[in-house]
Amino acid sequence: MKFRIRNHVSRRRQILPVLLAILCAVPFSHGAEPQSLSRDEAIRLAFSNNRELAVAVLEIDRAKARLRWSGRLDNPELEFSLKGDGIGNDEDEGNYEVAFSQQFPVTARLKQERHLRGHQVILAEAEIAERKRQLAGEVDLVLVSLLMIREKIAVSRQLVDLNEEMIEFLDKQSEEGVISSLDVMQAKLASRTLEQQARKLATEETHHLLALNKVMGLSPDTPINIEESTHLPQAEPSMEASLQTILSRRPDYVLALEKIDAAQAALTFEEAKRWQDVSVRLFVEQEDSVDVPTGLDGNTFAGFGISIPLPLRKRNEEGIEQAQINQQAADKEVEAARFRIQAECEEAFHERSDTWNLARDASGELLSLAEKNEEEFRKAYQQGQASLIQVQRAQEQVLELKHTALEFLAAYHEAEAHVRLATGAYPGLNIETSKNPK
């Protein structure tokens, strides 16, 4: 929002420089140039620097690692056995065997496992995208708070200039004996009140800048300059939006959609586990035995064996039933996510429209009349046609209306941030999925 700023050259140079230093105080590091960022650039910076998000992103690597190493046969087994009759007849009879065994699935279990792991990679990516959306919304709101604090500082600076001009005039009048020194003291007290408000705003600005650096993953003393307009749009924001487009941008909805395919893949995988693996065994056996009448003689055997588990008691019924329940839950979650997102968008769009109307009215004709009224009272006071109390009341009224206008403007920009959060209109949230929103 633009305010008309009047430039007044103050003769009270011992007060104004100190006050302006307080109003402009920002915790910049010594010798560092402020980094200029747009809103989207600040969000991208948060994505790349946020420590918690960097830890969460490792879940994608875990899912990809599980996919990379899935679908493989179990390790084969190498068997050795030695038998002798040393504790029996002790006739040097014995048996030596070397065997190699490998388990093989009789179903497409390994293929289904890889298929499931592939869906889990997409799920991990969607979960990270949802965390990014939440982080972007947090950055947006902190940015709005910081920008509106700076707007309030600009208003306070304007009122300080006006009050300084009044004090100069009163000093001259007091020296000439036209007015009482009590009027000068009253004006100075009002000036001290404005200074206190300015210091409070400067402190709030520092706190919001620290919060912004925190969510962006920057050190506390990093100088930041946000290049973002806080003007109220001339036209009322549209209430129309494509739900199809919004759903495709919402990572939580994409996540819900992907859970359907993942649940189906998990069910197929559990069904494939109804039949346990068969084991194939290859062996070579050397046997030494006593034959009559030749005596001790040896013989060598080679062959193979197969072991087939019989599914008489366990057929993975529990795993299949759990997978079926998960599939039902995934179907219901999509419906719930669609309803929730649509409701969030409706609420956000109405909030933005309502706050736009309030901000437009608050910064319109009423504020202009109050500013004109304050200016007329100052002129009348200088001509002896109004009292100092009337001037101060007019100034207080302007200050109150401007603060009210700024509060409504801040509410509008917060509502705009809520719309972005509800619609997922942030950079860097695109993810691939096997389904399209319906």
In DSSP terms (H or I, runs of 4 or more residues), the helix count works out at: 10
Q: What name does the CATH topology carry?
A: Outer membrane efflux proteins (OEP)
Overall SS class: alpha+beta
β-strand percent reads 5-15%
| CATH level-four homologous superfamily name | Outer membrane efflux proteins (OEP)
Number of domains: 1
Taking Cα atoms only, what radius of gyration do you get, to the nearest Å?
39 Å
* SSE string: HEHHEEHHEHHEEHHH
In order across it, which strands form the biggest sheet?
Answer: 2-3-5-6
Find the count of extended strands (DSSP E, 2+ residues): 6
Key terms for this structure?
438 residues, Outer membrane efflux proteins (OEP), 4-stranded antiparallel β-sheet, two-stranded parallel ribbon, elongated, disordered N terminus
Break the fold down into its secondary structure elements and pairings.
Blueprint: H1 16-23, E1 35-37, H2 39-49, H3 51-68, E2 77-84, E3 94-104, H4 109-175, H5 181-215, E4 224-226, H6 243-249, H7 251-272, E5 278-291, E6 295-307, H8 317-362, H9 365-382, H10 388-423
Parallel strand pairs: 1-4
Antiparallel strand pairs: 2-3, 3-5, 5-6
Helix pairs in contact: 2-4, 3-4, 4-5, 4-7, 4-10, 7-8, 8-10, 9-10
